[in-house]
Amino acid sequence: MKINWQGVYPAITTKFDQNDNLDLDAFKKNLEVQLASGIHGVILGGTLGEASTLTEEEKDQLIKTTIEVTKGDIPVVINIAEQSTRGAIAAAKRAESNGANGLMLLPPMRYKADDRETVEYFKAVAASTSLPIMIYNNPVDYKIEVTIDMFEELAPIANIQAIKESTRDVTNVTRLKSKFGDRYAVLCGVDTLAVETLVNGADGWVGGLVCAFPAETVAIYELMKAGRIEEAVAINRWFMPLCELDLHPKLVQYIKLAEVAAGIGTEHVRAPRLPLIGKEREEVLAIIDAGIKSRPVLPDYKALAV
Fold it and tell me: Can 221 be counted among the known catalytic residues?
């Protein structure tokens, strides 16, 4: 499947049951609501997907289940976050053999590689697979920035096609588009900056709170692309307190709690993460409850999609 890297791509959460096994029924239910809401692709095993806690067999199962549910209608992308080049290449090959349509690729984990090492890592993984790749640029959380110069060095590699832009600097979208034009698709990776990033020319949005509020997320995207910015901004103002949950170290617990409130998820997380308790839980629930009670009436945003 060719990926055009446009639209809303949920970084979907991994559902577990009370015995710490994959809850595929809950996973399918959420994914079906995402599809009905008009998402354009799905990303598995990212930060929100609790990637570091998943076994290889569980990742295989998530890919196969997602392909079963999506039926080829949207791209299925799997995240690669490995400590070694060898491990990343093995993960890429395994994803391709399992039927994934694309990869989201982080720089090396744990070791803070320099620019040359990071570029060589990306080149080696790209050379090992025919799958299209989106580079995840998140120096805030993962301590390695993929710079404009590094992307210039990667530009000749055809299957490195997109950038998940999570530097927190919305002007970086302008820099990327000014330098590379349409060579790379650029997708917003920070929920609180989506509208601003789309105004600056981003092609898509890798979302977090979309896991609980898919219709509102897709509506904002479609309205922005249709030039109906005031309507998008109005929904985004409602959405902002919820989107800020995506910026916290406990974003997995926060967003899973929002999924439960929206009726499309479970709260179970995999240790060392633990469910929220006490005052923190009450404060997060208050934000979610206020959002649920004041959900906006959406226009027919699906009619805007080209």
Answer: no
